[in-house]
Amino acid sequence: MVRLECVPNISEGRRRDVIDACVEAASTPGVRVLDVSSDPDHNRTVLTLLGAGGDLVRAVTALAGAAIERIDVAGHSGVHPFLGALDVAPFVPLEAQQMPAAVDAALRAADELAALGLPVFLYGEAASNAGRAALADHRRGGLARLGERMASGEWPPDRGLSRPHTTGGVVCIGARKPLVAFNLLLDTDQLVAAKRIASALRESGGGLPGVRALGFFLESRQQAQVSVNLTDCDRTSLLDVVHRADELAAAGVRVVETELVGLAPRRVVPEGGAEALRLPGLSERQILESHL
């Protein structure tokens, strides 16, 4: 039996009753919920699931049903880009040779979610073609703009209707290599500083390989944040990200603390990880391999 990781994101990080109901829905037979990470400013919750492909497809389908029943994207607010109640659900192989199983699970999930009335966009290794593989291309312009692109035929969904679901919006389903979500907290409330550092960190801006980054202001903390997705753990480490951010920070601005969202492969966490990464409370439970 091939076990996969699945990391669905829902557009809710504030209402505990909604989050709990969604987690319960995803806790189907054969699936282990390894981690649940919620953030009120992003208004987003990231679940980490483990199971066989078919079991994960059932879990994601149940999660989608709970999300579209309880989350209305028309009233959603949060600093993180979003398209749907169940926003993304990538299937991740634990070993490189398992990618075909991850793609198969993603395609099966796409069919199930389309049957719920959700337009589905496939990305990563599950994309219908190379020109649609980047998640950012689906998100470009936000949900309202995507609705216009769908209606005009410019950017049709891979499954489902060519209009967003009334409450659930759309969903992006993918298959990809392991990704690490990592936040850098700055000792400033200046959004411009976070955006400047994020721009220079991004691979697309000439920064570190496999790094995507955005700058945010966190209202609840009155603090600027650089939110990083490390998409290639073999070319760039978390320590590389922290060191480069330190170099980019202007006088009077520094990275004072970091956060790990979900789980990380052991190979990207350095010796003395908590101190080296300024990551308080780092525990073995945040290491993916400790759950396998």
Outline the structure in words.
The chain is built from eight helices and eleven strands. With 292 residues, it is an alpha+beta fold. It has two domains: 3-175, 2-Layer Sandwich (Formiminotransferase-cyclodeaminase, Chain B, domain 1), CATH 3.30.990; 180-291, Formiminotransferase, C-terminal subdomain (Alpha-Beta Plaits), CATH 3.30.70. Strands 1, 2, 3, 4, 5, 6 and 7 form a seven-stranded mixed beta sheet that branches. Strands 9-10-8-11 form a four-stranded antiparallel beta sheet. α1 runs antiparallel to α2, α2 (53-70) packs parallel to α3 and α6 packs across α7. 45% of the residues are buried.
How do the helices and strands line up, and which of them pair or pack?
Blueprint: E1 3-6, E2 9-10, H1 16-26, E3 32-39, E4 44-52, H2 53-70, E5 86-93, H3 99-115, E6 120-124, H4 135-139, H5 142-152, E7 171-175, E8 180-186, H6 191-201, E9 211-218, E10 223-230, H7 238-248, E11 255-261, H8 273-276
Parallel strand pairs: 5-7, 6-7
Antiparallel strand pairs: 1-4, 1-5, 2-4, 2-5, 3-4, 8-10, 8-11, 9-10
Helix pairs in contact: 1-2, 2-3, 6-7
